[in-house]
Amino acid sequence: MEEERYVTTKKAGIYGIIGNVFLLIIKAIVGFVSHSQAMIADSVNSAGDIFASLMTFIGNKIASVPKDDSHNFGHGKAEYIFSMFIGLSMIVVSAKLLYDSVMVFIFGSELTFSWFLVVVCMATIITKLGLYVYTKKAAKQFNNILLEANMKDHRNDCIVTSFTLVSVILTLWHIYWFDSIVGIGISIWICYTGISIFMESYNVLMDISVDEKTKDLILDLSRAYPEIKSIRSLSSSPVGAKYMIFLTICLDGNMSTFESHRLADSLEKNVTALDMVYKTIVHVDPV
């Protein structure tokens, strides 16, 4: 399963790099020739996408390294570190694009209609839609934040390029202001996505707790043992895409050490079988 997760994420990174290099070249050429601020913004966005795909490739490679003496729980958090890089790069790119688009809006645009712009928009939408479908399926299957970040990026590109296409078509009726408005919209969208990816990664790196649904499942599994008098504490710590679970349960003080540990081992196995759980440690308190 882990090997399949690594290979699929690696493929997503490679496909993303190839697709975005192709889009960057054609967008930049057509954007500068036609003076389309929206298309130029889109080309810079593609440059950011190349970086994002590269971070996915590198982060996945590091995260796939097995646990060792120096990293007892593996290298899974590399996914979140590199996802933060992706988020930060989106925020930086969006700030530059926002400035350029506002300047064009104030001082005017030199955009001229070109069928090449239409073709590039269509090529972008088709390419990004294909990448989006692939990464969405993989992200859902493997619960990988790097894939999720790339999925959102591809989805956003489909939407913003559709607006770019609209702005290009509007120039046939001499409506030029929409082009810079789309550039501003793209900038804000990229910034919002970057902040959301950054915050999600930050929360995991700051040891955010497991979600309430998984907590309830763990408590239900614990309550299924009639020997457990009460659950004193339940805490968790992220390990890559999963969580370490720490449980303290109260058992009858007259129960033998062998029986209490056998029960604890059984509970550990049941909780660790949950999708979001990497490992479970159960501590027994006699009462």
The value of Rg in angstroms is 25 Å
CATH homologous superfamily designation of the largest domain: Cation efflux protein transmembrane domain
* Proportion in helices: over 70%
Discrete helix count:
8
Distance between the ends: 41 Å
Main beta sheet: 3 strands, mixed
CATH architecture of the largest domain: Up-down Bundle
The CATH topology of the largest domain is: Alpha-lytic protease prodomain-like
* Sequence stretches where pLDDT stays below 50 over 5 or more residues: none
Query: What's the arrangement of strands in the largest beta sheet?
Result: 1-2-3
Strand count: 3
What pattern of helices and strands is seen along the backbone?
Answer: HHHHHHHEEHE
Shape: elongated
Regarding CATH, which class of the largest domain?
A: Mainly Alpha
Count of folded domains: 2
What would the average pLDDT be, to the nearest integer?
A: 81
Provide the β-strand percentage band. Answer: 5-15%
Structural class by SSE content: mainly alpha
Primary descriptors:
287 residues, mainly alpha, Alpha-lytic protease prodomain-like, Alpha-Beta Plaits, three-stranded mixed β-sheet, 3 strands, 70% helix, elongated
